[in-house]
Amino acid sequence: MPDTAEKQSNEVKNPALEKCLEVLKGAQTDSEQFAALLLVTKCAQAEELNNEMRRTIFDAVGFTFPNRLLFSSSVPDGCPSHLFRSLGVTLLACFCTDPALAVHPQVINKIPIFNETVNTPCQSGNKELVSMVEDAYQCLLGILASPQGAKNLISHGSLPCLCQAYLNRNHCWEKALQILTSLLTVLPTKCWKKSCTDLQLLLTRLSEEFSKEEGERKFQLVDLLPAFLPPLPVLLETSWGEECLKQLCKGLLKILSNKLSISQRDPALKLGACLANAYGSSWIIVENKVERSRFLALIVNLACVEVRMALEDPEPLTSRQSSITACYALVEMGIQACTKEEKRPVLGQEQKLQLIGVMQEACASIIHYLQQFGWEMQEDPFLLASIRLLGAWLAEETACLKLEVIKLLPYLVHYMRTCHQRSVICRNLPKEVSQVALLSCSWGTIWPGDAIRFLLPALCHLSAEEAPRKVLISEGVPVLLCDYFQQQWDVLFAEDEPEGMQSAAELSLQTCCGVFLNLVVTEPTLVGQESSFVLLLKHLMQCLPTLLTKEGHLVLVANFATLGLMMSRLLAENSVLHESNSQEFFKATIHFLSHSHVPSCQTDAGKPVIMLSESYAEAWEEISELWFLGVQAFSNCVHLLPWLSTLVLSSGWLQESLCLLDNVSPKSVDSDLVTALQGMLIELAQSNSLCRDVIRKKGGAEKANLYGMAALEQCLAELS
């Protein structure tokens, strides 16, 4: 029965067409074939043919005859010059609607002809030319639908021709825009690399049209514009790019300032979200500061309202997840605008307070949503987007919603652990599979997303407060972060990891150290009880010497060195500090602590002024607290680890520090540095007689008096 139905569906329903095909099959000469094909094209358009009829035509003529038609330079007297080409393109359009024929090399190598054809000037009254252009688009669309179609069109020069067809408003320019949108959606980087100038002109035109449109088409444009945005950071680094942003802002402001339906508003918010993801709030380029702050406040307010309405709605959210995710990006932009320090802030203080209030309400909705549905929606990527925004909010503000956040912490830890376990599985897949998952920006891949990375800054704040810290400890966060720490270290220097993944890994490692430092300082007893801290210290001892050999990682070195020293104070009796690699770790910490300050070329009272060495000066704002804490922790380790003072002596750090104090102007050495060095000198003098002798020989007592180191002066006097 099914075979009969299928047979019936493939039967020719056009008797005239059937007769033409019979004539075509029996044709003996070119003239007979040509006449038969003319009859075929009269009887049916390509889209009206079923697979059987297409195959019948193809079996009758193959590619040889269309090729001759396309490249023939002469036509019969009285016929239009494009007659043969028109018929050839029509035949290929017929073939291209068959997926098997659309990928044939004989079709692919005709792409330049199709490109040329779509830019054929034609008046609406010239039916033959109009039909040829439409058939050329049919061919391009058929090729585009094949697996390698986008690559084939790009490599055969379709991009500039399609851009030209749109810019010149040639016949079927809407289809040109349709194909361009598909190409840029599938292969954006390749498109911009291949045809940057053409796409620049196209985006400029689209932006202008978007800003000026008053009718329904502005909603069509706002829907497709995200696909035409160039790679970072082009729009903010070029004059034409800034002009595009002005036009996009103008068009968005028109849309968002009006009362709209959800279907009209969502695409506008998505376009704003694409720009916010790429440029923060810098993409908002309007006439003046007042308009800019108004626009920013408007779009963030609208996003917050959408988030609240969607998450508090009892109806399922599935159909609007992509729109709400876009709103999340806009809210995150608002958080950054309200919290980052700027010489000329976009928002005034009152605007910031108002926005913070509405963003807090949006984040409260997220917490409520996660409490309701989080446990049952573990696999839903929308949860990761929700948690990312919540993490961005908590990274800046933990005082508000504190009770709600503490109540949610067990779920957040569970979610982080689940994502981490799945990511470990993903990384263990064959490399070609896992890389695709890691690099994919679309939802629903096997890669679960790095929930820990999004929540780490929040964990850094929460671990400093007693109530949330207790929850984090009870939920096993130290063990989880220790495992994550090792994974991120592996990513950081893996040869085949993308650069973006490595940068994210380095930032995650720094923030991890911040969380662990909070735990070490506030919960010292836990460090001795929890085996994960011993494992962490082993990692640090292995990693720091390696890290020192790499350039450009001073902030991470500071974090590793200081955290390791702080833990060593508490684990001095543990066997981990008596293993062979522990000395290499302390040599590395000495290297970090001893290379920060040097004499400068400037002088004061005939002596050089002390200054930061070049690499430390660049990072000092980020590492100064860690450096001072590291010197203090190192000093505390000296009497706990008897061999450490000998290591200091052999490294030359003690001698170099004393020489530095001797050679520079005392007025140029700030009190914090004096205090830090005094603590180290006292510990070394008390712990090792050889160190004490060096301090004395280098004029330690005189320096103590000169720099106001009363405690060192007393120590040396008591030990004499």
TrEMBL record:
Concerning Pfam families, the annotation shows: Neurochondrin
> What processes in GO biological process is this protein linked to?
neuron projection development; regulation of neuronal synaptic plasticity
InterPro entries with a match to the protein in the record: Neurochondrin
Gene Ontology CC terms, in alphabetical order: dendrite
Family, similarity comment: Belongs to the neurochondrin family.
The protein, known as? Neurochondrin
